[in-house]
Structures are given as structure tokens and as C-alpha cells.
Amino acid sequence: MVARCASIGCLVVPRFPLACELADRPELWGRPVVVAHPDTPVVWSASPAAVPEGVIEGQRLSEAMGRCPPLVVLDARPARYEARDAAILDALERVVPGVEPAGLGTAYVELASVARCYRSPAALHAALLGCAPSELRPRLGVGPTKFVAGLAAQAAVQGQRRNAAPNVRVVAQAEVAAFVTPVPVTALPVEAEMIRRLRLVGITTVGQLAAMPRHALVAQFGPQGKRLVALLDGAAEPVRPRPREERVRERLAFPEPLTSRESVLAAARQVLRRVLRHPRQRGRVARQLVVRAETEQGKRWESKVTLRHARCDHEGLWVTLAPALERASLPGPVSELSIELRGLRPSRGWQGELLPTRNASTERRERIEEGMRQLQAHYGRSQVGRMVPVEPWSRIPERRWALVELE
Amino acid sequence: MTPRPLNAPVCIPVQVDPAGEPRSIGLPGPRDRRRPIPVTRVAERWRIDEGWWGPNPLSRLYYRLVLADGRLVTVYRDLDDGTWWAQRS
């Protein structure tokens, strides 16, 4: 039934950054709250209680605080939002095969292929809604196209069908015209400038826009107008699933944030060793490395390093990675560091020495490694550490050296 | 293994004189050896104040002490809460 009338779903968490913050601080529900943009001092996401006071997204923070003195301003934590968004996408992919991310907190899903796997459309909708934590208050819109599904998701709370879940809105093909006509043009997925120009000429609803001659829209707005015409004519844009790429990631969290570059480098070496030991990475080489550093405030620094040759040896990867870390301008003391290997593929063999020379130091090293393996097998974790300088110049003795796992 | 700092301080019991200087200290170790050891003299004294601009300020008064048994040890008093700690420096 879903396949016949409405085959695309849109899962939306409105005002995603704010929803994430309110999920962590439920005492702020109902109060005027904004999340500040991580890069510029403007409002990124505003709560419904702040909007009647004149606070809007994109407004300068100083102006917003002037308009609404009891406004609570929260620092953005993009790393946390991205992690939550990724978790939602992963959960959706376990329910439906085709999931297209469309910005933080929004994803389109292709329902036709899985509709028969569920008892009823309502069961499918419940499974999709269950992919996002309930405290984020997700909404689901279902429609024949992505455009309609997106609008339906935004309207999920205002108007519901009988017997439908309160945060699900299903728009069947026959209802599209009646549903879309009163929708304000601000809900259109186009640039803000286009919406501003439409309102300047008195076009405020999609119904008014649909009555316009198509050639006039194209002449006025160019390629954007052409896309708008396609949306109004019900052109079906397919759901484009995100590419599936196998990745391996390891991270290290620090109870005491790292302040010096030397300590960040030492920690990165440790994370690199861990990720290269990951079971899914064994016997394979990586084409790309992504290193991320997060601060306590949730700010994030990221660098992507593409390798000339796919490889998996520690020293070779470190030679490529270290310069990126050395010249990085980190946003603050680092509380978490992670390294991700991408573009994994089986190793085609690495031509080394045909007859490796064995000397005393090699044998000694092998004996030490064997002893370490036995210790690890006995105690379940490595018992041998290596001292690494962290801040050797520090006046605080416990900050000078650290003990890390010995390879 | 999570990286862990070396030379982490260990909390110790210290008896002080009326001026607040250490008079005897109980060094960390097995319980039967934890009897207080008198301090012969204070060889050196220095103060460290760090991170006062941030959320985790640190204020310590370090002493290098000569003990009655001839040992040279480094201890410090945490000026925030008054606790005493032994530490290799």
C-alpha cells in the first residue's frame, strides 16, 4: 500500500542542533534558547519560545539577546551533532536499504522496496521513527516525491490524518495538490534569496507559485527556477543512497585535555597503532586517513590525508599524518582524538627483502614480542608500557611523561 | 592501555608545626612501614600556580625535605584544599 501511494519518506528532526542540546538539558524545554553558530556569532538554531520575541535563525547574537533578555545562548557542539546524525543514518540503514542524508537531522528513505516486509504502513513508520531517539522529537513525512515528503515531515505535527501517529504525516498522490497549495513558500527547498524575491512580488504560498507561468519562473530565477518548476510539476527525484564505504575508526579520549602539540602527536601515534591493529583492517591497505580532534566544548578539527599509494604500515602512514598535525590550528585543548582509515582494499602484496637478514637485535625483539603476547594472553590486556614525553618542560611532574602501550 | 601519567602524586599524612611547615611525614608504602618519619630540615621550597585563568586552577607549595633516615623526598601541599602529597620531581 505504501508502495502504491507514497513511496518516499523523510525523517526530520527539526532544529537539529537545538534538539540535541535540549535532549542533554531537558530543563531548558519551553524556554527561549538558541544555539550559536560555531563559526560566526549568529543564531544557528532557535527554540519556538524564542521566535515570538523576534529571535530568528541567522540573526546576530547581540541583536537576539537585545530582543529577548532571558535568552539562553548555548555554544554549538558540531562534533556531537554529527555523531548523533550519523547514528540516526546508521539506524535507518538497518531498516531500509536506501537512505539519502540531506543535512543535519534530515534524511530521505526509499520505502517501496521494504513496504512488503512490514505488517502495515504504520509498523514501517514506527520502525523509521524509532531510528531517532524519542527525546529528539523526530517527525516523519511520507509522500510520492522527496519534495512532498519533506513538506509532509514539516507539517507532521500541525495536521495529522486520523489513526496516524502524532508525528507522522502521509500524503497520498491524490492529496498532493490540496496539501501543497497552502504551504508557505518559506518551506520550499530553495535559496533564501529566491524566497525573499518571491515574497517581494506578493507570492507567499506554493499554490500562488504553481499558478505562475513556468517560463516566467525560469526566466526570473535561471537554473534555480528550472528546479522549482520541476518540483511544482511533481518531477520525481530519486533517493540517492549514500555510498557505502568500509571504514575503520579508533579513538582515544583523554580525562585531562591535551594542551601541547607534542602530547597530541604522541596520542595520535597511539591511535594510529590501534587503528592498524583493528581486526577489520588486517591484511588490507588504506587509501585515505582522516584525523579528528575534539575539544571539551565539542568543537572539532579535522584533516583528510589522501595517500599516494595505498598502504598500512605504521611508519609510512605516520610520515604522511604527522605534518598535518604539526601545522594544525586546533580549536582548543583536545579531549578526544580519532583516526579513520578509508578506502580499504585487500593488500596486493608488498615486495620487501627476499631474504631478510636476521641479526641479534631482530631475535631479541622477537623474544620480547613473544613475551608480551604471553603477558597479554594471560592478563587479557597489554602489561608492558613505553614512556613517551608529553610536556617534558612542564613544572608539574605528572604532566612531563606518560606511559603508553608498547608495540 | 589508556595513556596514563607517570609520577602521579600520592596522598600522604603529614604533621606540621605551628608555622605550617612539615614536621614528620608518612611515606607511601606497605602498611607496616607507614610510621611517621621526622623531617630534619627543609632543603628547598618553591611554589607553582598554574591554570588560574581556566576552570581547573592548580596551586601547590613544594618542599624538598631531608628526613631523619637521610632520605631526600619531595612533597607538596595543595593550597586549594590543604592536602599533602608525595611526588617524584
Draw up the topology in text:
The complex is a heterodimer of chains A (407) and B (89).
Chain A: H1 2-5, E1 8-12, H2 16-24, E2 33-36, E3 43-46, H3 61-67, E4 72-74, H4 78-95, E5 99-101, E6 106-110, H5 121-129, E7 139-143, H6 146-154, E8 168-170, H7 176-180, H8 192-200, H9 206-210, H10 214-221, H11 223-232, E9 248-258, H12 261-276, E10 284-295, E11 300-311, H13 314-326, E12 334-342, E13 345-346, H14 360-379, E14 385-389, E15 401-405
Parallel strand pairs in A: 2-4, 7-8
Antiparallel strand pairs in A: 1-6, 1-7, 2-3, 5-6, 9-12, 10-11, 10-12, 10-13, 14-15
Chain B: E1 4-5, E2 10-11, E3 14-16, E4 22-25, E5 37-50, E6 58-67, E7 72-78, E8 84-86
Antiparallel strand pairs in B: 2-8, 3-4, 4-5, 5-6, 6-7, 7-8
Fold and architecture overview:
The complex is a heterodimer of chains A (407) and B (89). Chain A has 407 residues and is an alpha+beta fold. Chain A has four domains: 171 residues, MutS, DNA mismatch repair protein, domain I (3-Layer(aba) Sandwich); 52 residues, DNA polymerase, domain 1 (Orthogonal Bundle); 96 residues, 2-Layer Sandwich (Dna Ligase, domain 1), CATH 3.30.1490; 43 residues, no CATH class. Chain A contains 14 helices and 15 strands. In chain A, the strands form four sheets. Chain A has a five-stranded mixed sheet with strand order 5-6-1-7-8. In chain A, strands 9, 10, 11, 12 and 13 form a five-stranded antiparallel sheet that branches. In chain A, a hairpin with a 4-residue loop joins strand 10 and strand 11. In chain A, helix 12 packs antiparallel against helix 13. Chain A starts with a helix and ends with a strand. Chain B is an all-beta fold and 89 residues long. Chain B is built from no helices and eight strands. In chain B, strands 2-8-7-6-5-4-3 form a seven-stranded antiparallel sheet, with no helix packed on it. In chain B, a hairpin with a 4-residue loop joins strand 6 and strand 7. Chain B is globular, with a radius of gyration of 14 Å. The model of chain B has no long low-confidence stretch (mean pLDDT 88). Chains A and B meet through strand 9, helix 12, strand 14 and strand 15 of A and strand 1 of B. Strand 15 of chain A pairs antiparallel with strand 1 of chain B.
